[in-house]
Amino acid sequence: MVNPKELPIYEIEQALKQRLTAGNRLIVTAPTGSGKSTQVPQILLDHGLLGDGQVVILQPRRLATRMLAARVAQERRGKLGDEVGYQIRFDNISSGETRIKFETEGILLRQMLSQPDLKGVSAIIFDEFHERHLYGDITLARALQIQETIRPDLKLIVMSATLAVEELGIYLKPCSLLTSDGRAYPVDIQYLPKPVDFDRTPVWEAAAEAFAQYGRCEGDVLVFMPGAYEISRTVQALQNLPEAQGCTILPLHGELSARDQDAAVASCNRRKIVVATNVAETSLTIDGIRLVLDGGLARVARFDPYRGINTLLIERISQASSDQRAGRAGRTAPGRCIRLWAEREQSTRPLQEVPEIKRLDLAEVVLTLKASGVNDVRTFRWLEPPEPRALERAEMLLRDLGALDENAGTITELGRRMLSFPVHPRYSRMLLAAHEYGCVRSVALIAALTQGRNLLVRRTGKDVSEDRDNLLGDDIESDFFLLMRAWSYADKNGYNVDRCRRLGIHAQSARQVGPLFEYFLKIAGEQGLNVQSNQFSNESIQKCVLVGFSDHVAHRLDSGTLRCMMVHGRKGVLARESVVQKEALLVAAEVHEIENSGGDLNVLLTLATAVKEEWLRELFPGDFSERLQAVYDSAAKRVYALKQIVFRDLPLESRRSDSPPKDEAAALLAEEVIKGSLTLKLWDHAVEQWIMRVNCLSRWCPDLQVPAISEEARRLMIQQVCLGSISYKDIKEKSVWPVVKEWLSPAQLPLVDKYVPERINLPNDRKARVTYVADASPYVSVRIQDLYDVRETPRIAMGRIPLVVHILGPNQRPVQVTQDLSGFWKEHYPRIKQEMQRKYPKHEWR
User: Fold this and answer.
1) What are phi and psi of 691, to 5 degrees?
2) Residue 260 and residue 662: Cα distance in Å, rounded?
3) pLDDT higher than threshold 90 for residue 234
4) 3-class secondary structure, 124
């Protein structure tokens, strides 16, 4: 291990002390591996900059929080939890003696609710701030408010290796900036000669091939993969390589036990290959890494506020993230980074990751802000404001849960009680409802089961499935019941790996549920909930789930498939492993858009619970309505009525009748006419020409104030023609002229015939039809003999528009097309006359 005092960050030790003595806001930029995460807190303590208080260091990830605290405690030769401690959700290893405390960002935000003045906290360090985690942004904004109002002595330090300093400096103004250049060794970055098609060659196979080609260099290896599944496949692929024989291959991700995580970071007697998620990208430093193999991918969580759907998709990392990863190879000696993509692709990657404030569910944050007195979250001091629709969706959910007042949008007493539980508002609302139904223990277990990795293996063999059914039962009311029984089985069997594996249970995940379960029960008891009662039915638990997820109610579209229609007009597919496949009405605790093996996206409904319509009526009586909806039957070419019973906007029952709403029926028939699948026989060329004439008159003579007929007006006319009809038989020969001419007033109708006539009079008592064309001049087609006495070009529209004249020969074909009839007679007629006389001697020629 490197001597901490030799780390590059100590180059700015004195400057850091001076800046924080003179002011209380500081930005520190320093390269990855410079020691800022572990040494800056110690510098503050050792130089007396904390007084009697403590420094809180905020980390984006739980794994880094725990491991950094352990590293600093080791460096100071103390026990973790004494002078140096940490706190993450559900785990607090600290005491009254703790002076250096590492925390995840959401922990401090909740502390600000109970202790608005942050008594005992002298400084807050926002580490790895470039990652722009949701709670980091919010906590920084709240810390600034506290500093500017009641705690001007509070020191705020924002640190990162890659940071948009200019934008942040404006936000924190006034503040100082310190930069440590560090002493990173050069890293040779290489790309593959051509891109890898990950649809054909999985990323773990590409990484194994790259190691076989480049892995002979000295030093340890760090391989970046997007998630736990890809890591396990990469470990397997590397273990089968001759080039990796003799190496210790270790995974590193957040779902591992603390012991396994520590093993990946610790020193090793043999050459080590660590396969990690982006948790190893920042904060954590793994000594001895000389080669980085970067898959260039990461699993990115997003929330679509328009559909209310969570997505967890594999995406390409940004250029900044790829630079961070490469830097891990140059910590202790010159290194190399092999990027598993072509060099030309690098410039097409985004410069930075999208901040979480722009892509995650904001419900818990909004509730926390409301509790701290921020009634209008739109005017909050955002570093970068979220999408308005995301805030609307969060507030709508919180109103549905009863956490916000329906009208004022302020937090309710129920909402304040919900904040006592460090879980999403949905689960805290379920816990409070469970008190009324006497099933707090069961719902606390459900909440604990949903906080980590899925307890059950999704894809199991036939033998495993049969054993699981035999031992765990086959309840069909809820997927949660299966999870609860699986955990109970694992707990009673001491989390025995072999026994759990036989039923497809993750033993380690099951082991992590127990402490959470007890933690939730402890908080529930402190909040006055009855945690002892066990007098309840399955129905009670199902109703609690419904209370928390009423906006995820889904109705099966048919019994032959797993397709569902959901509240808010969404569609999804029930997971194949769900136990509620025979139920028509259900609620899904998880709605995810996921990518399948073929690259297609599916909206998958998981953790489903069967519900009944009478429960919806009992719990949400104001959300039911009846709706009469018109539906077009393309086979019968007619419109029917569907009388529907609707929960919010989700139809639960439908009955068909022959009396649809008139306006809706007309609109549906009109739509089919416009698409061309139905034809109005009397809407002919003459009608289209009249519409064209009206539009021409409106354009050429605006002083007459004749309104044009737009496409929308045409649609309304067709609807009016269809009004009172329900089938094609009713409309196909229906009169259209009365409706079309109603567009103009009685005073305007004569203006059409006067100024844009259907025909014009010729001197020989003949008439010529005028053809009106969109985006072109109107024209007439006239035999040359009928024009002998017409010396000037005819004009219409108050003489403003000259007609184009198609002059026809005896064969009815144009011999000339002109808008200058006078010039035609002078310049062209003599020649045309000679030709025509020879061909047609019997015709009159002047």
Assistant:
1) -60, -40
2) 69
3) yes
4) strand
Task: Print the SS3 string covering 375-403.
Answer: CCHHHCCCCCCCCHHHHHHHHHHHHHCCC
Q: Taking a C-beta distance cutoff of 8 angstroms, is the pair 787, 807 a contact?
A: yes
Do 778 and 796 meet the contact criterion of CB atoms below 8 Å apart?
Answer: yes
Q: What is the pTM of this model?
A: 0.69
The token pair that represents 470 in the structure block: 């035999």
Decide the pairing of beta strands 779-783 and 795-796.
unpaired
At CA 337, angle to CA 353 and CA 63, rounded to 5?
55
CA angle 53, 55, 58 (to 5 degrees): 150
The 187-192 sheet, strands edge to edge: 187-192, 335-342, 289-294, 220-224, 272-276, 248-252
Closest CA to 572 of 583, 562, 581: 562
Helices 440-449, 425-437: crossing angle, 10 deg rounding? 160
Instruction: Give me the residue label for tokens 């007396």.
Output: 48
Residue 741: CA atoms inside 13 Å, Cβ hemisphere, count?
13
Integer Cα distance of 189 and 183 in angstroms: 18
pLDDT band at 673 (very low <50, low <70, confident <90, very high): very high
The SS3 assignment for 500 reads: helix
3-state secondary structure of 829: helix
Contact indicator for 296, 260 with CB cutoff of 8 Å: no
pLDDT at position 600 is 57
User: Rounded distance, CA 667 to CA 631, Å?
Assistant: 10
647: phi then psi, degrees, rounded to nearest 5: -100, 110
Task: State the Cα torsion 246-248-251-257 to the nearest 10°.
Answer: 140
For 201-252, the DSSP string reads: S-HHHHHHHHHHHHTTSSSEEEEE-SSHHHHHHHHHHHHT-GGGTT-EEEEE
Torsion of CA 808, 810, 815, 819, to 10 degrees: -30
Condensed to tens digits (0 to 9), the pLDDT of residues 688-743 reads 999 999 999 999 999 999 999 999 999 999 999 999 999 999 999 999 999 999 99
Other Cβ atoms less than 10 A from the Cβ of 774: the count is 8
Whether omega before 660 lies within 30 degrees of 0, making that bond cis, reads no
Contact 503, 486 (CB under 8 A): yes
Helices (H) and strands (E) in the chain, counts: 30, 31
Whether the CB-CB separation of 836 and 815 falls below 8 Å is answered with yes
In whole angstroms, give the CA distance from residue 651 to residue 556.
11
H-helix or E-strand containing 293?
strand 289-294
Strands (DSSP E) found in 709-783:
759-761, 767-771, 779-783
Positions of E strands within 14-81: 25-29, 54-59
Number of residues assigned to the chain = 846
Cα 507 from Cα 494, distance rounded (Å)? 9
Q: In whole angstroms, what is the distance from residue 149 CA to residue 131 CA?
A: 28
Percent of the chain with pLDDT over 70: 94
Beta strand 801-802 pairing with 795-796: antiparallel
All residues at 6 or more sequence positions from 757 whose CB lies less than 8 Å from its CB, including other chains:
770, 796
Residue 646 tokens read as 């609707």
Name residue 634's amino acid.
Answer: S
Q: Amino acid identity, residue 300?
A: V
DSSP 3-state assignment of 407?
coil
Supply the mean pLDDT for the chain.
88
Rounded to whole angstroms, the Cα distance separating 4 from 420 reads: 40
Q: How many other C-beta atoms can be found within 10 angstroms of the C-beta atom of residue 306?
A: 11
Calculate the CA dihedral of residues 292, 295, 300, 304 and round it to 10 degrees.
Answer: 150
- Residue 196 gets the label, from left (phi > 0), alpha (psi -120 to 50) or beta, of beta
Q: CA 102 from chain center: how many Å?
A: 30
Give just the sign of the alpha carbon dihedral 145, 147, 151, 157: positive
